[in-house]
């Protein structure tokens, strides 16, 4: 299927197909997501890997798809479709329906595109698809290959967060890289272990009120989309190693050393507080970071730590080191409370986590730049989240690996905030010397 040009012709010649595993997984195999997985069902991870010309040069569509067949043999769960059991709880039927595969062309060169530095245009490289309203016909993963004029390729990925967190995404893509290189990808996920039964609750749940890290929405039924009160917009920028070192030195005057994530979180927290004003400044923020790997299902799962930080003092007037210390030392893990809040109604409630409070997501340890295609590593990786609530989210990733020219060794920051706050955030960051 070929669509008409979109977004003033920037991306065109769009072709849609599907790719499934090379081997059938068998009949009647199911995967039951955990309560934490289902708590993330209204969120979607959106990533783009930018490659120079050599990575995909001369490859036909079939040549690109062939390693994907083998890759999906390792993780057939992502090829399934959701169903509901008699109690209404959602599970994945591993029916090999496949992932959606999209090809497109871009009217810009790779360098021209990257120089535009417009995160809002990146949606052209990632399908804006959600699960529902018909669960049984909704793909969980979309892959889009967009070829730039004069060489270079963007590999976009839309991933239902219910499958696993950003660290799961990075590991899955790195497995694809090993398959492309002809290496042994490792043992596939044991689907026999993925067949689970709904657990009967032993006694009354501990949770009486919803934990403060989540927000109850909906009910959404089978249309897994979070609707916000205002339009959300994405904006990204790079923080160079020198900018980061200078900022860290300012915060460590009292002798306490702060990591890049803690430092940038404190600064952006205060910038957003200034934008929202004293009456609306965020006194509670959510912190998401890497947790212990999922031991049951290998690389897949939502094992990231979800914590909250509370401030009992004005954010706008606070010393940045005081905010950084809160992020470093005072984050309270709420994963158990979230799971209990889901289990109380057999995992049926509809929640959001990102944007329930202003949310800072630490993806510094995600191995995005270890993805290798035909011996080539991405020149840049962009990563965002769809389904963020009105309070917004800020993601922090490793910086581009280009020898420091635009932040190698530094950090990439993706802010997803109400549209009217994005411009004001840029102004605040310029005052701090970060938007240059």
Automatic annotation (TrEMBL):
Q: Name one Pfam family in it.
A: Transferase
Kindly give the InterPro entries that the UniProt entry links to this protein.
CAT-like_dom_sf, Plant_Fungal_Acyltransferase
GO MF: acyltransferase activity, transferring groups other than amino-acyl groups
PANTHER family to which the protein is assigned, alphabetical: PROTEIN ECERIFERUM 26-LIKE (PTHR31642:SF115), TRICHOTHECENE 3-O-ACETYLTRANSFERASE (PTHR31642)
Q: Which family does it belong to?
A: Belongs to the plant acyltransferase family.
- The protein depicted here goes by the name Protein ECERIFERUM 26-like
Supply the source organism for this entry.
Answer: Buddleja alternifolia
């Amino acid at each position: 299927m070929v669509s008409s040009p979109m977004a003033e012709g920037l991306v065109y010649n769009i072709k849609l197909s599907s790719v499934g595993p090379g081997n059938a997984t068998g009949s009647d195999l199911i995967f039951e997501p955990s309560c934490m997985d289902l708590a993330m069902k209204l969120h979607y991870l959106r990533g783009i890997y930018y490659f120079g010309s050599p990575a995909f040069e001369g490859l036909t569509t079939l040549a690109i798809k062939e390693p994907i067949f083998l890759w999906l043999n390792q993780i057939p769960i992502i090829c399934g479709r959701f169903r509901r059991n008699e109690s209404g709880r959602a599970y994945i039927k591993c029916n090999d329906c496949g992932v959606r595969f999209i090809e497109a062309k871009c009217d810009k060169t790779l360098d021209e595109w990257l120089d535009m530095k417009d995160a809002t245009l990146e949606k052209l490289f990632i399908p804006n698809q959600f699960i529902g309203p018909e669960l049984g016909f909704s793909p969980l993963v979309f892959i889009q290959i967009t070829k730039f004029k004069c060489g270079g390729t963007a590999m976009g990925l839309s991933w239902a967060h219910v499958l696993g967190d950003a660290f799961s995404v990075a590991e899955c893509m790195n497995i694809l890289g090993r398959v492309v290189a002809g290496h042994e990808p490792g043992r596939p996920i044991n689907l026999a272990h993925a067949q689970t039964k709904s657990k009967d609750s032993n006694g009354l749940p501990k949770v009486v009120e919803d934990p403060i890290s989540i927000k109850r929405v909906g009910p959404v039924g089978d249309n897994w989309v979070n609707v916000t009160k205002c339009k959300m917009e994405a904006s990204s920028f790079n923080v160079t190693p020198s900018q980061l070192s200078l900022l860290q030195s300012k915060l460590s005057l009292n002798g306490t050393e702060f990591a890049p994530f803690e430092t940038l979180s404190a600064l952006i927290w205060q910038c957003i507080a200034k934008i929202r004003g004293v009456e609306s400044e965020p006194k509670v923020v959510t912190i998401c970071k890497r947790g212990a790997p999922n031991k049951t299902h290998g690389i897949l799962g939502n094992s990231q730590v979800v914590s909250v930080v509370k401030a009992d003092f004005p954010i706008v007037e606070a010393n940045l080191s005081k905010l950084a210390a809160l992020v470093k030392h005072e984050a309270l893990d709420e994963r158990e409370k979230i799971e209990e809040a889901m289990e109380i109604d057999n995992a049926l409630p509809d929640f959001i986590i990102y944007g329930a409070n202003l949310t800072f997501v630490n993806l510094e340890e995600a191995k995005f730049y270890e993805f290798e295609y035909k011996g080539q590593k991405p020149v840049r990786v962009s990563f965002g989240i769809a389904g963020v609530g009105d309070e917004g989210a800020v993601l922090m990733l490793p910086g581009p690996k280009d020898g420091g020219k635009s932040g190698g060794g530094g950090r990439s920051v993706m802010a997803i905030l109400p549209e009217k706050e994005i411009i004001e955030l840029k102004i605040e960051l310029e005052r701090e010397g970060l938007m240059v």
